[in-house]
Structure formats: structure tokens, C-alpha cells
Specification:
single chain; 1078 residues; alpha+beta; 8-stranded mixed beta sheet; 7-stranded mixed beta sheet; 35 strands; 24% helix; 17% strand; globular; binds zinc ion; transport; Znf_Sec23_Sec24_sf
Length: 1078
């Protein structure tokens, strides 16, 4: 790992390619690389620095964004490319050598198979109530033990037990290679819960006068006449500990630092607000008698923006003054608690470094509102929803302290004996430490004798600062046998490749084989890693990879209706035993099938056969598919044509094409999940493949869909390789169970994401990785206590790729409030909008599109109406008033309506892909997906790119597109570069190696040429890839052809044939609010 002093904190190592192949990569930018290494080496607290013992291994891997695979022809790597030597240890390219030639295969390392179903314990729950986490084959393997314990409130209850997740299993250094921190983009300043900041009012006069923004504190919004406040967002104000990117770690004294900052997180003390930090209003303020439902305390008005609207609906609004993102390039240092109070997190899309001072890092868990309403009525009045987004294995910033691993030995972690909640900083010890009160269910428990410790004068345990579980919002517990129904499973990777006529001819089969061939060196090292491979067309072909044979033997399974697996023990082999055979096979498969004339594909049967081979262990099944499955179990029909006619007939039933065609695949998916098999689908197609049906498998098993349409053998292999590589090298875990518990009064209503659910309280995840997020909707089942805090605890029980069983526990405690104004002040825009987007994605397949679209707009209207009615002090009905924290909500909502998933003109498969992509997507990627980032490239040479590699984003409006400009627009999936008609030829030559826009190729591969402009462009693209943990599909676009239309379709602020412009949408929203007010 690199030494401290690397690049600034914000600069995470791009995803470089660990293996030597990367030397061939073309896009690598030298500059980038430096950062990479640096990132890896980013300053990190010395190992011993913390008072606590071990930490979870940090993720040392490289991120996806990096350079394209070396396989494809590309420019040689610049000579000064960063040396690969700096690669993190685990990334070392050396792969485990196979056993000595001739040696017989050792018995499979996992000889011990999971006990027969009946034999296993059934609950995962806690040790207390040993619920056998049935990892094994049987369903319900992880019964949540909680049930037993907490009958009444399932949601809090038993989940605790079994859920052990380990620290990020990933290699020893899974800590954090750079997280996908989207930079500045979303970082608009927003008001913190704390002290009310001066409201920013955007007011435009109703008349013809352009609206102007003012920042008035409390003043009547109407007063806004001067343009004074305008572009400077009033909110940006309170510096949250902004920190200039320095090479040094923000926590100068990482270890010891904790003591300082943690003024006892738990005690009840006064709140020493630290300078520069925004402290929430003293508790007292929240308890003051409400002036009125929701009036801000002290008569101060809430920060907001108001803009005058003319009643005629004509827009007098100056587009330059309507609410926009104000990206901040600075890295924010965020302490999760300050002065014994929860500190509202920075925007999810900003670049920040978290210091865990008692509450969970917002990377692992964040709430739509940072104060919890006392009653369901109050929440309902606000129009907002209360949900958590949990991403338990999220990548941390390299400068953040790694998560501590706590080992309680044979007794396992201390838990509440009633709700099974895990010990955490908010548990209150009493009676000289002999007993403790659970912050989740309120139960009073005996402190285990060997865990006893006296209390200090402040009421806290004297050892609180030395015990991570008592002073950190997130810790990882070593799971005991009670959390296992069998030995932790090995890391099994099974590759299933479509070799029917279509993919062999389009090059998709060759691309898949090449990608696998390159990434196998990155598989987790060690005896616990096993692999298998099969190909299929209308039959299934397994391969015996055992070393004893001269070459891999093909074993054909012809029956695709009643599938079986030959020689189970020979098709999944210890990786070190079969590495050479596997490579040989991958090199040969494209040739073996190059003249294949079988057009049929038995995908369902192939998945089933692979499942049978993996049934005893579980593992990851990586499927490369190109055509609609046409034969054998689970075959599908071309519904799309029939859907087209339905659409033209009147869209009523159109959404049914977005539902699975039947239940066959769902049933299969449930079985896969039960046996801990996670499926990822890589679709490299040229046609309709019915994603709506196929995607049921990855969604149910904790996997995901990758989509390459139309597949291009020229430009897509690089992305396929990078996607696959990130898929297997990112931090991840297996056979997981997740449960969220809440304090009394709040309960989990529903979980959403990619998982399997057999019982209401727990989520089963055959696999989970750092990119997967689960939305947890909450509701009240009782009134909360005024002046109290409400806790949320997410526990994930999982097995690391190295076979350790762990429980990752994140606890977040938020203040309760009975004031509506506090809810608006503490609203988390990014989180709220992410939930709105996910809900829309869930609704699309089951409701008419118009209804889904109206619903999204109505959510926006209801929230703004509530604010206008109960919190705004402005009296003029001619003003649209937006709470500062949510001022971007209308723009985001408008952008959502224009997403492919919510448009009727999109291809059915494209819409299904969008829905599937959104399902497990983390907040920092949802925002750019809906509201992409656009930057100007033509003047790169004139700008000195200070710290930020990526220029400041510009609004998504064609007004900002000049004919002699070049613009890059990216949403985390696609990256479009639009070239204006009058761009100077020398710029085209320098950037793209072409002399006029007529030469723009359909399939574009970014090259790096020997000039500064090209280098800057490559740096930008690689930085974006690093931030998004995605390689992105690149496309050059020009006016007048489909590529140009695609580019302009992302300019969501423009008026379209069926859609409002941004200003029109604001007026629309305003009218609706006026109607409700009347
Ligand atoms: Zn409890």
C-alpha cells in the first residue's frame, strides 16, 4: 500500500488494473495512476493507533473505472505510467500456482458439506436463540432468530442473531480503495439541521420582473427585491468542516483523535458545539411549544427559496436564478456526532470523509430526514417519507478509519435478550454497569459478568472509549458457531457462457471468454476459491477441469427439460488446481464454437444445471447471455412485438411487458437463493431478450444485470472486462442475512432491493457487495417520546470471501422532534429523491405509466405544499417557496419523468434495464443517473484544473450548448461526448484524432494522443470511471443523427414534445400548490 502523503484525500486511486495486462491499456492516464497508488496508500491511521484492536481489512483493490482491458488493441501505455508495483498486495498479479503437475486433486477443501437440511439449525438469529442460519442448502437457512425473541415487534427483533457479516471480506485490504465518491456534483450546500440558517429566498416578482434571490433571515420572503443573495447559496454558509484536500489525512492523529472528538457520545452532557460545525439546535429548542404546527423556533423563518410566479403562468423567471446545484469541490470532513448529537450528513453526492464518532457513517446508513417525527401524523403532514438507505459494505474513503473488528470469543457479541439488538454506543448502562437498557426495545438486561465495567462520573462506562462497540457507529463482530449452520462457504465462481450462433458470430462469446481469462488472476487467492465453467446453446456443456486430465473434458447435458449435472465433484474445482486448464479452455472456446449453427439457447436449463453443480456450496454464477432463451425450461417468447401493438392500442397494458412473463424463473430464483447461489447476468445482445423476465433471477439472488446493447465487438469488450473485474474484486460477502431494528415506536414497513425474502423481518442475500443498497421504509407503530432519540440498527451477517463469518452492525441515533420545521430543515434531499426514484422503479411494472408519473409529481407537490402552508412566512400566493434543503426537488422530479424508465417511447428492454439498475443502486449513483453531469471540454486548455480533475458541471439545458463547443455528459452508465458543428478542427484532431465531425465513428474508443488536451480528456474520463466505479459506455455524438438526439434527450431542463421545461415545471408545481392552498 502506498504511504501516506499521497494525493489529496479526495483523489482516490482510480481503478487501475492490477494485473500486468494493464500495461497494454490504452486509456490509462499517467496522472491518474499516480493518484491511484496514492489513493491506496492514502493516509490511514496506523494500525495500532486506535485504542482498539483489529480492524476489518481494508479494500485494497482497484476500482472499476480504470483502463480498458489490455486485450483490445490500444495505444501502448505511456512509458511513465505508474508502476504496477504499487499495487496493493491482494491485487498482486501472481496467482496461486497450481499444484505440482501430476499431483492428484486434493479432496475439495470443503469436503464438509452442509448438513442435510434437517440437520441444520434453523435460525440465524442470535446465539441466544440459535436460529440456524441455514447457509446450507435448505431454505430459510438463516432463520432469523429474532423471531423467537421478539415476537411482537418483528422488525426489531431477532434479526440480530444470525446476521453476521464480516467485515468486508475482500482481501486483506478491502478497506477502501476509493469509494465511488461522486465529487462535487451533488454537493450543494444545504441547510443543516442545526441552527437555522438564513433562508435563501429566491423570489421573483409575479410581474414581468425577473425573480431574484435574496437571502433574508426570517424576513418576509416578499421582501426580496435585491439580487444580492443570488448566486451565492445562502446555505453554503455554515462551513461544515470543509477541508482542503491535503495529502495529510484529515484526522491528524487518527487514533488518538477519537478521544478528542468524541465527547462522550453517549453521556448526557451538554453540547459543546465545536467551532465550525453545525450543531443541531439544543434539545430544548425542539421541545419548545410549537408556535404553530411547524413554525420555526424563535420566530426565525426557515431557510428557503422563493420565487415569484405570475398568475398568468408566463414565466418571468430568470433561468439563471432558479434553484441549481452549487457543487463544492472541497472535501468535507464529517463527524457523525458532535456534542453528543447526531450531525446531519453532507450530501450523498459530495466528496466527504467520515469520522465515526458514535453514529454510523452515512455511507452505510442514511435516513431521508435527520430528525424523527414524534408521530405518524406529523410525518404524514410533511408529505415526506421516512426511509433508510442501507449499504452495509459501502466503500469507505481511503482516509477514513477502517471498521474495527470486535471478537467477544465464544460468547459472541453482547445482545439485548429481548429484541436481539447488538450492543452499541446508545445502550445505557446503569446500576454501576451491572445492567443496561436497550436503546431499541427499552428492555433492561443484565450485563454479562465478563463484560462488566464500572461507570465514570459522567455516567458512561469507563472503558467506553476503548471499546469500538461502545463508541463507534459501525463495528464488525466475529461470529461464533451460533451464527452458522455449516462451515462458512468457500468462494465459488461459476461461469456460464452462451455459445449459440448469434454470440459466436457477433464476437460476444469471444469477448466473454477474453474477459474471464483476464480476470481469473484477480480471483481471491487461497484454497477456498473454487471455479467451474459451462457453455450452452440448445444443450449444456460442462468441462472437467481436473488436473489429472490432459485437457478439459467436455461433458454434454442434452436434456434441457429435466436437467442434471454430470460429475458434480469434477465441474467445480479448487482454482489453484485448474488454473491452467481453465485458461486453455477459455482460449479455445471461441474457436471451438466459431462455426456453431445452433441458434437456440437453453438459458434456463443451463442456469439450473449450474445450480445443481453449485448446490452444495453456493457461490456466484456469472452468466453471459446474448439471445432470448428459446428452448428448455424457462424458455421465453418474443413478447415485445405483441406489446408494441398493445401500446399503440392504448398503453393500458403496456406495463405488463415489464413484468416477468411467468413464474418459472421466479421459482428457480427462489431455489437458487435458498442455496446461496447469486446470479449476475451479462447481456451482450443485438435484440430483445425479455430482460423483464430474465432479471428476476439476479434480483432475487442479490445479483444484477449488466447490459450491452447493441453489443459492439469493437467498443464493448473493454467495458465487459472492467465490469466483470469489478464484479469479482470489489468488496463482497456471501450467504448473508440482513435485518434493521428500530427503537420502539418505529418499525420497518418494507425492504426493497435485490434479495430474497422468506420471512417478513429478514432479507436473505446469497451475495452482497459494496455497491448494493437496500431501501428500508419505516413507519410509526407508536408515538415517540419527546426529547428522546430514535435508533436504527442494521445488522448484516455474512461470510467473507476468505471464509470468515462476521456481523457488521451499524447504528444510527437521531433526535426526535414534534416540529414540522425541523423535519424540513433536516430533510436529506439526495436520500429522499433516491427513495422516490426507487419507488417509481418498483411501480412501473405494475401500474399505468401515467399514474407512476403523476405520483412522482404529486410527492413533490405535497412536500412543497406542506412547507408552504405550515412553515413559510410568506403571504403572497404569487410566490413559489421552496425549503432550502429540498430546493432541487422539482428539478430532480422533472428529470425523473424524463428518464427512460418513465418514458413510453423507450424500448421495453431498455426500460427493464433501467428499473433493474435502480433497484439496488446507491444514492451517489441515483442522482447522476437521473440528473446527469455535463461539463464543457472545449476550453480545457485554458483552465488550470486546480484540485479537481473534472470541471464544474453546467446545467442540463441546450442554452448552454455552443456550436463550437464540446460537451461531456455522463450518468454513471453512459458517457456521451457531443461535438458541436463548428468546433475547431485542431481541437478535434487533438482530442479524437479526426479532422472533421463527418469522421465521427459510430463506435468510439477513446485514445490518448500526445498532447495536453487529449491527456486532460483521458484524465477526466478515468476520474469519472473511478468515481462511478463503472467503466461507462463512451459515445461520440453530433447534431443531426441519432447520437445527437440521444445527447439532447438528456438535457432535461429543455422543453420536449411531451415534457415541460424546467421553468414550465416550476410553474406547474406552483399552480398545483396554489390549488391546494385555495
Ligand atoms: Zn432490545
Amino acid at each position: 500500500m502506498a504511504a501516506p502523503g499521497g494525493p489529496r484525500p479526495g483523489n482516490f486511486p482510480p481503478n487501475y488494473n492490477p494485473n500486468s495486462l494493464s500495461n497494454n491499456m490504452q486509456n490509462l492516464q499517467i496522472n491518474q495512476q499516480q493518484p491511484n497508488n496514492a489513493g491506496v496508500s492514502a493516509p490511514r491511521p496506523p494500525p495500532n493507533a486506535t485504542p482498539f484492536g483489529q480492524r476489518a481489512p481494508a479494500f485494497a483493490g482497484s476500482r472499476p473505472g480504470p483502463p480498458p482491458p489490455g486485450v483490445f488493441p490500444r495505444a501502448p501505455v505511456p512509458p511513465n505510467a505508474p508502476a504496477q508495483t504499487t499495487l496493493p498486495p491482494n491485487m498482486v498479479s501472481s496467482r496461486p500456482a497450481g499444484p505440482p503437475p501430476g499431483s492428484q486433486l486434493p479432496p475439495p477443501p470443503f469436503a464438509s458439506r452442509p448438513p442435510p437440511p434437517g440437520a441444520m439449525p434453523s435460525s440465524i438469529g442470535g446465539p441466544v436463540t440459535p436460529s440456524p442460519p441455514a447457509l446450507g442448502p435448505r431454505p430459510g437457512s438463516y432463520p432469523s432468530s429474532p423471531q423467537t425473541s421478539a415476537p411482537s415487534t418483528p422488525s426489531h427483533g431477532s434479526g440480530s442473531g444470525p446476521v453476521s457479516n464480516g467485515p468486508p471480506t475482500f482481501a486483506p485490504r478491502m478497506t477502501q480503495s476509493g469509494p465511488p465518491f461522486p465529487p462535487a456534483m451533488g454537493s450543494m450546500p444545504r441547510p443543516l439541521v442545526g441552527p437555522p440558517q438564513p433562508p435563501a429566498m429566491l423570489s421573483s416578482r409575479p410581474s414581468s420582473q425577473p425573480m431574484q434571490m435574496h437571502s433574508s433571515f426570517g424576513g418576509p420572503p416578499t421582501a426580496v427585491s435585491s439580487a444580492s443573495g443570488q448566486s451565492a447559496p445562502p446555505f453554503s454558509g455554515p462551513p461544515q468542516n470543509m477541508m482542503p484536500p491535503l495529502g495529510s489525512s484529515p484526522f491528524s492523529a487518527p487514533n488518538t483523535g477519537m478521544h478528542q472528538s468524541i465527547n462522550s457520545p453517549y453521556g448526557m452532557q451538554t453540547w459543546p458545539a465545536q467551532p465550525q460545525q453545525v450543531a443541531p439546535p439544543p434539545p430544548g429548542s425542539m421541545q419548545q411549544p410549537p408556535l404553530m404546527f411547524g413554525m420555526p423556533p424563535g420566530g426565525q423563518s426557515l431557510p428557503n427559496q422563493s420565487m415569484a410566479m405570475s398568475h398568468s403562468g408566463q414565466s418571468n423567471i430568470d433561468p439563471n436564478q432558479i434553484p441549481r446545484l452549487a457543487p463544492s469541490a472541497s472535501v468535507i470532513v464529517h463527524e457523525t456526532r458532535q456534542g453528543n448529537q447526531a450531525n446531519p450528513p453532507p450530501p450523498a453526492t459530495s466528496d466527504y470523509i467520515v469520522k465515526d464518532t458514535g453514529n454510523s457513517s452515512p455511507r452505510y446508513m442514511r435516513c431521508t430526514i435527520n430528525q424523527v417525527p414524534l408521530t405518524a401524523d406529523l410525518l404524514s403532514t410533511s408529505g415526506m417519507q421516512m426511509s433508510l438507505l442501507v449499504q452495509p459494505l459501502a466503500l469507505a474513503h481511503p482516509s477514513e478509519e477502517p471498521i474495527h473488528v470486535v471478537d467477544f470469543g465464544e460468547s459472541g457479541p453482547v445482545r439485548c435478550s429481548r429484541c436481539k439488538g447488538y450492543i452499541n454506543p446508545f445502550v445505557k448502562f446503569i446500576d454501576q454497569g451491572r445492567r443496561f437498557i436497550c436503546n431499541l426495545c427499552g428492555f433492561m438486561d443484565e450485563t454479562p459478568r465478563d463484560y462488566h465495567c464500572n461507570l465514570g462520573p459522567d455516567g458512561r462506562r469507563r472503558d467506553a472509549d476503548e471499546r469500538p462497540e461502545l463508541c463507534r457507529g459501525t463495528v464488525e463482530f466475529v461470529a461464533t458457531k451460533d451464527y452458522m449452520v455449516r462451515d462458512p462457504m468457500p468462494a465459488v465462481f461459476f461461469f456460464l457462457i452462451d455459445v449459440s450462433m448469434n454470440p459466436t458470430q457477433t464476437g460476444a462469446t469471444a469477448a466473454a471468454c477474453s474477459a474471464i481469462r483476464q480476470v481469473i488472476a484477480d480471483l481471491p487467492k487461497g484454497p477456498r476459491t473454487m471455479v467451474g465453467i459451462a457453455t450452452f446453446d440448445s444443450t449444456i456443456h460442462f468441462y472437467n477441469l481436473k488436473r489429472s486430465s490432459q485437457q478439459p473434458l467436455m461433458l454434454i447435458v442434452p436434456d434441457v427439460q429435466d436437467v442434471y449435472t454430470p460429475l458434480e465433484s469434477d465441474v467445480i474445482v479448487q482454482f489453484s488446481e485448474c488454473c491452467e486448464h481453465l485458461e486453455m479452455l477459455l482460449d479455445n472456446i471461441p474457436t471451438m464454437f466459431e462455426s456453431n449453427r445452433i441458434a437456440d439457447s437453453a438459458l434456463g436449463a443451463a442456469v439450473k444445471a449450474a445450480f445443481l453443480a453449485m448446490k452444495n456450496t453456493g457461490g456466484k454464477l456469472l452468466v453471459f447471455q446474448s439471445v432470448l432463451p428459446s428452448t428448455g425450461i424457462g424458455s421465453l417468447s418474443v413478447r415485445e412485438s405483441e406489446g408494441r401493438s398493445n401500446i399503440s392500442a392504448g398503453e393500458k397494458e403496456a406495463h405488463k411487458l415489464l413484468q416477468p412473463s411467468d413464474k418459472t424463473l421466479k421459482t428457480m430464483a427462489m431455489e437458487l437463493a435458498e442455496y446461496q447461489v447469486c446470479v449476475d447476468l451479462f447481456i451482450t445482445s443485438q435484440m430483445y431478450v425479455d430482460i423483464a423476465s430474465l432479471s428476476v433471477i439476479p434480483r432475487t439472488t442479490g445479483g444484477q444485470v449488466y447490459y450491452y446493447y447493441p453489443f459492439s465487438a469493437r467498443s464493448d469488450p473493454a467495458k465487459l472486462y472492467n465490469d466483470l473485474r469489478w464484479n469479482i474484486t470489489r468488496p463482497q460477502g456471501f450467504e448473508a442475512v440482513l435485518r434493521v431494528r428500530c427503537s420502539q415506536g418505529i418499525q420497518v414497513q418494507e425492504y426493497s432491493g435485490n434479495f430474497c425474502k422468506r420471512i417478513p423481518t429478514d432479507v436473505d442475500l446469497p451475495a452482497i457487495d459494496c455497491d448494493k443498497t437496500i431501501m428500508v421504509s419505516l413507519n410509526h407503530d407508536d408515538k415517540l417520546q419527546e426529547g428522546s432519540e430514535c435508533s436504527f440498527q442494521c445488522a448484516l451477517l455474512y461470510t467473507t470471501v476468505y471464509g470468515q463469518r462476521r456481523i457488521r452492525v451499524s447504528t444510527l441515533s437521531l433526535p426526535c422532534t414534534n416540529m414540522l420545521s425541523n423535519l424540513f430543515r433536516s430533510a436529506d434531499l439526495d436520500t429522499q429523491f433516491t427513495c422516490i426514484t426507487k419507488q417509481a422503479a418498483i411501480e412501473i411494472p405494475s401500474a399505468p405509466l401515467a399514474q407512476v408519473r403523476d405520483q412522482a409529481t404529486n410527492v413533490c407537490i405535497n412536500i412543497l405544499y406542506s412547507y408552504r402552508k405550515f412553515c413559510a412566512t410568506v403571504s403572497s400566493s404569487g410566490q413559489l417557496i421552496l425549503p432550502e434543503a429540498l430546493k432541487m426537488l422539482p428539478l430532480y422530479t422533472l428529470a425523473l419523468l424524463k428518464c427512460i424508465g418513465l418514458r413510453s417511447d423507450g424500448r421495453i428492454d431498455d426500460r427493464s434495464v433501467w428499473i433493474n439498475y435502480v433497484s439496488p443502486l446507491p444514492t451517489p449513483l441515483v442522482i447522476p443517473l437521473v440528473y446527469p453531469r455535463m461539463i464543457a471540454l472545449q476550453d480545457l486548455n485554458e483552465k488550470e484544473l486546480d484540485d479537481s480533475i473534472i470541471p464544474v458541471p453546467i446545467p442540463l439545458s441546450s442554452e448552454h450548448i455552443a456550436i463550437d463547443g464540446i460537451y461531456l455528459l455522463e450518468n454513471g452508465v453512459d458517457c456521451l461526448i457531443y461535438v458541436g458543428e463548428d468546433v475547431q478542427p485542431n481541437i478535434l484532431q487533438q482530442m479524437f484524432g479526426i479532422s472533421s465531425i463527418e469522421e465521427i465513428p459510430n463506435q468510439f474508443i477513446l485514445q490518448q494522443y500526445d498532447n495536453p488536451l487529449s491527456k486532460k480528456l483521458n484524465d477526466i474520463v478515468n476520474e469519472i470511471r473511478r468515481q462511478r466505479c463503472s467503466y461507462l459506455r463512451l459515445r461520440l455524438c453530433k447534431k443531426g443523427d441519432p447520437s445527437g438526439m440521444m445527447f439532447f434527450s438528456y438535457l432535461v431542463e429543455d422543453k420536449t414534445a411531451n415534457g415541460f421545461s424546467y421553468v414550465e415545471y416550476l410553474i406547474h408545481i406552483h399552480r398545483q400548490i396554489q390549488n391546494k392552498m385555495a
